[in-house]
């Protein structure tokens, strides 16, 4: 047995409770599908929003609308990544192989780094949008749309 196979093999989930392991694999696959659907919905909404902004808005309004769309897309991406991590954890918990645990650790690291930098970028976009909104705010307190 090699180092990468440590922990793999017969366990309670692969023996007497194989039905539970199979059910959890289905749950993991369902979570993957939901994550992908969430990402696709976010991409579609972003694409439609950008097209609307490009076709019907001018200047700063177009940029603001696009930036709002980027923030919304970022939320979808972050949610999708979180669901994919949940699925990977379930899959690795069922495997018990050291290679799967290492793979999970690397996936979580990469996805966490993506989430961190995406969240940072979204924060900057939110700040830019709030600064733009305060510049557009007239003396009477109402907002220009």
List the helices and strands and how they pair.
Blueprint: H1 18-56, H2 59-95, H3 98-136
List the keywords.
elongated, mainly alpha, 145 residues, 3 helices
Short description:
This protein has 145 residues and is mostly helical. Helices cover 79% and strands 0% of the residues. Helix 1 runs antiparallel to helix 2 (59-95) and helix 2 runs antiparallel to helix 3 (98-136).
Rg is: 22 Å
* Uncertain segments: none
Q: How does the helix and strand content classify structurally?
A: mainly alpha
Question: Averaging pLDDT over every residue, what do you get?
Answer: 82
Explain this structure.
There is one protein chain. By secondary structure, the protein is mostly helical. The chain is 79% helix and 0% strand. The chain is built from three helices and no strands. α1 (18-56) runs antiparallel to α2 (59-95). The termini are far apart. The mean pLDDT is 82.
